Amino acid sequence: MLSKKIIDRINLQINREMFSAFLYMEMSARMSDDGYKGIGTWMMTQYHEEMFHAMKFYGYLQSQGALPSIGKIDAPEVKAKTIKEIFEATLAHEKFVSASIRELLELAIAEKDYATEDLVRWYVGEQVEEEQNAIDILQTIDLMGENKQGLFMLNIELGKRKPSIALDFTGMP
Ligand code: FEO
Prior knowledge:
This protein has helices spanning 4-33, 37-63, 83-110, 114-144, 148-158. By secondary structure, the protein is mostly helical. α1 (4-33) runs antiparallel to α3 (83-110) and α3 (83-110) runs antiparallel to α4 (114-144). The longest helix has 31 residues, at 114-144. Bound molecules: MU-OXO-diiron (FEO). MU-OXO-diiron binds at residues 17, 20, 50, 53, 94, 97, 130.
């Protein structure tokens, strides 16, 4: 049985994961509108990954007899204009999410809630991967500098990204 503190904190995390999904959907729209359809696809794949993160927590609450509660999700704001700025914003956002996941892990440990701790450790590993993805792309962008052909190729390469997770959330858990 989960404590109210843990349920509330997981619900906050669901909200943050859904906000992340909408943020990347907005970035996807911007990139596609600018003609970078490959980066738009990469961002839309990220949208699906974030929805999966939210739904994994949602399913966990249900499996423990607790009620998921979505709450109000803020509208995403995308100020980034260039591709480099878009991925800098992605990295900054993922660092925020990593800190939020660590906070949830610390709460689970403090409450001796080992089941939740086990679940949240999966997200810790996932965050390492998410930050690494943005770092790798930023390094490539830095190496290319102003090279337009490089950007063209990067756009094609990023457009090959496919979701690594289930997209159908019916029946969860
Ligand atoms: Fe679910 Fe990108 O953190």
